[in-house]
Specification:
The protein folds into four domains: 1-76, no CATH class; 108-234, no CATH class; 262-409; 432-690. It is 3% helix and 38% strand. The chain has three helices and 70 strands. The radius of gyration is 44 Å and the shape is elongated.
Length: 693
């Protein structure tokens, strides 16, 4: 290999004197250089001792020449021979033949739209402006005032070993559709601190599904945090000096123990958009100020540990100990109540048309009258837009225009927030579109038959018992006679465990529509020809006469809940039952009756397998007419089938018809008819046929 040094070449030449005349006698020999041995004129060869002089430039692609005579001492290579390339364009690739680089290093990576370098395969973890970082910690160290750190890769929890402080600078974090997992460090960001309560962090997501995960919170804010887009999992908190501005994105309360508040506010919280979800969504502390404008979604969720739930075990959208000012049209979502009041809320608006806000008050704040809402100047509050969820309290308007929860005596029931000590008066005010809520057990015989005609109403049993066993069928939903039919609709649920309706022969007669979400209906339900039951939850127990859960002459749609009876569903001729979800059917054997879950004389369609709780003495299906199966028994399940001999003959043995695209498996069904077995016919249906002798 050539090196950059003086190369001395000693040439010894033997001079042979040529016998040419002229040179030396008349003039001197002429040579091209001091190291030239042949005369340019007479070609006489001379003997010289002289050093060839050449300088090596260290580049194998250039020849090595004598500086005196120009003779090539080392030939040039056609090209450098590259050493192994590490794939990083910012590091040079050395030549294996010389000291030069086969490939020169770039000054810096240049990122494409996907974060990959346009010159090599290196992927950026983050960019700050055009600066390209392959290490998240390096990016953080260079995240200076006024810059935006944009993620190009997910950051795992193992990559972050301590919280990130934003001090004396204003910076932006663009998630760019990636995940920043800081769940290993408790609170991920500190925007300012106690000694330096300044700093500003703006969070946005220029991609989609960008998420920041924390353990005990995404950020504690002493300075300012702005959320424009992206999702923050594990909530936010601020101090008395901290300001949080939320105009978009989503904040979810941390879930390490239950679902806690999305934002715990000790300073200033301004919300104009986005979604907050927690238990409660906003926990506004004493001296905290919350300003709500625009149309943000604020959702109070169930907190399994009871934090923020207090009276009823369900978190509010807002729990207020400080100052809350509501403007615009926020979208509140909550299972039980929107606002939990320790200190009143000030509003510049009120619920939109058709909406109301439910209000709860802390137990230790209750008195005969508690102010819950104060109007801004010029606002006239409508007490009908606010509903008390506190037993025995109603919403009243004060002389100064504010609203209070006032003790109304021991209410037995309420209708949309108005309380009644007389149950019949409550029934008389149970008008179309309203909800009747029980606040006391209703004793047997205190009222007559209830008719729900030409109206759609709801009933919240609220954990109480409405006992009407002295009346054969105490509640009529709609009315059907030989000459006339009158519609009506009733939705039943219980916001507290234990709500029940007890009837005589039946709890309800349904000629209109009954929607059952929760609560217990004892002694069954009778459905007339034009009636419909939609059962999504709750429980129906069989009556004491025929032991029937639902006696159906109309249409029954079952998707949830539980029915316990000797005949869970007794489906009459020409009537329809649809099983659409995992309802529990608990057949109870009585005497010689096998306790079928479904007794079918009409049209029965099973789209999703129910949960049969039959014992070894019970059966799942007792059929007069075949059923249609769009599904079949689950793995390790079989359904027992009974059909009388006359009905076997009438139906040619067929008891099950397959839904479109369903291949019925005869081994999933067992005949309870002596001497008969289950077989599959060529048309795909299942039939009971005599066992071959």
């Amino acid at each position: 290999m050539k090196k950059a040094s003086k190369l001395l070449i000693l040439l010894a030449s033997i001079v042979t004197v040529a016998m040419f005349a002229g040179c030396g006698e008349t003039h001197s020999h002429k040579y091209s250089s001091d190291c030239d041995t042949i005369c340019n004129t007479c070609e006489e060869v001379r003997e010289v001792e002289i050093e060839h002089t050449a300088t090596d430039d260290g580049d194998c692609t250039t020849a090595l020449l004598c500086e005196l005579c120009g003779e090539v001492k080392i030939e040039a290579k056609d090209a450098h021979t590259a050493d192994e390339d590490d794939g990083d364009c910012t590091t040079a690739v050395e030549c294996t033949q010389c000291d030069k680089n086969a490939v020169e290093a770039k000054d810096a990576h240049i990122a494409g739209e996907d974060g990959n370098c346009t010159f090599c395969d290196v992927q950026a973890v983050a960019l700050i402006g055009d600066a390209f970082y392959t290490s998240f910690s390096d990016a953080l160290n260079n995240w200076s005032d006024g810059t935006t750190l944009k993620l190009y890769s997910d950051i795992s929890s193992g990559s972050i070993f301590e919280h990130i402080e934003i001090l004396n600078k204003s910076v932006t974090l663009d998630l760019n559709g990636h995940v920043l997992d800081g769940s290993s460090v408790g609170v991920l960001f500190y925007v300012g601190n106690e000694e330096v309560p300044t700093g500003s962090l703006t969070i946005q997501d220029s991609g989609s599904n960008g998420v920041i995960k924390g353990l005990n919170g995404v950020a504690t804010v002493f300075g300012t945090l702005n959320l424009k887009s992206g999702t923050l999992e594990s909530g936010l908190g601020n101090t008395s000096t901290g300001v949080i501005n939320i105009s978009g994105g989503k904040v979810i309360g941390h879930t390490s123990i239950g679902l806690f508040d999305a934002v715990g506010n000790y300073g200033i919280l301004n919300i104009s958009g986005g979604t907050l979800c927690g238990g409660p969504a906003i926990e506004n502390q004493k001296n905290g100020v919350v300003n709500i404008s625009g149309s943000p979604t604020i959702e109070g969720k169930e907190n399994l540990e009871g934090y923020g739930a207090l009276l009823e075990g369900t978190a509010a959208a807002i729990s207020n100990k400080g100052t809350v000012i509501i403007d615009g049209s926020p979208i509140f979502k909550s299972a039980k109540y929107e606002i939990y009041v320790i200190e009143p809320v000030t509003i510049l608006t009120q619920p939109s048309e058709g909406m109301s806000w439910r209000v709860n008050v802390a137990k230790n704040s209750l008195s005969d009258k508690v102010v819950i809402v104060k109007p801004e100047t010029g606002i006239t509050l409508d007490p009908g837009k606010f509903v008390s969820v506190v037993d025995g309290y109603g919403v009243v308007k004060n002389a100064d225009g504010s609203l209070s929860l006032a003790l109304l005596g021991k209410a037995v029931a309420g209708v949309d927030g108005k309380f009644y000590t007389d149950f019949n008066e409550a029934l008389n005010n149970w008008s179309d579109g309203t909800t009747l809520t029980l606040y006391s057990n209703i004793a047997d015989g205190t009222n007559g038959t209830i008719e729900i005609l030409n109206k759609s109403v709801s009933l919240d049993l609220n954990g109480y018992v409405w006992d009407m066993r002295s009346i054969s069928c105490p509640i009529y939903v709609g009315m059907a006679t030989a000459k006339e039919w009158t519609d009506g609709s009733l939705s039943i649920y219980t916001s507290q465990y234990g709500g029940q309706i007890k009837g005589g022969s039946y709890s309800l007669f349904v000629a209109g529509t009954l929607n059952l979400y929760s609560g217990v209906l004892q002694n069954g339900v009778l459905v007339s020809v034009r009636g419909t039951i939609n059962m999504m939850g709750g429980s129906i127990d069989g009556n004491t006469n025929d032991y029937i859960g639902i006696d159906n002459y109309g249409t029954v749609n079952l998707s949830g809940g539980i029915i316990s009876a000797t005949y869970c569903v007794y489906n009459r001729e020409d009537s329809v039952v649809n099983i659409l979800g995992p309802i529990i059917l608990n057949g109870i054997k009585r005497g010689n009756i096998l306790g079928p879950a479904i007794y079918n004389k009409g049209i029965a369609v099973i789209s999703e397998a129910p949960v049969f709780r039959q014992n070894e003495n019970n059966i799942e299906l007792d059929l007069v007419s075949p059923i249609t199966l769009k599904t079949q028994p689950k793995e390790d399940e079989v359904w027992r089938v009974n059909m009388s001999a006359s009905n076997i003959t009438a139906n040619n043995g067929v008891f099950a018809l397959p839904g479109e695209g369903v291949e019925l498996d005869p081994t999933k069904f067992v005949s309870m008819v002596e001497g008969y077995e289950v077989t599959k016919l060529t048309n795909g249906s299942l039939a009971l046929i005599p066992i071959a002798e």
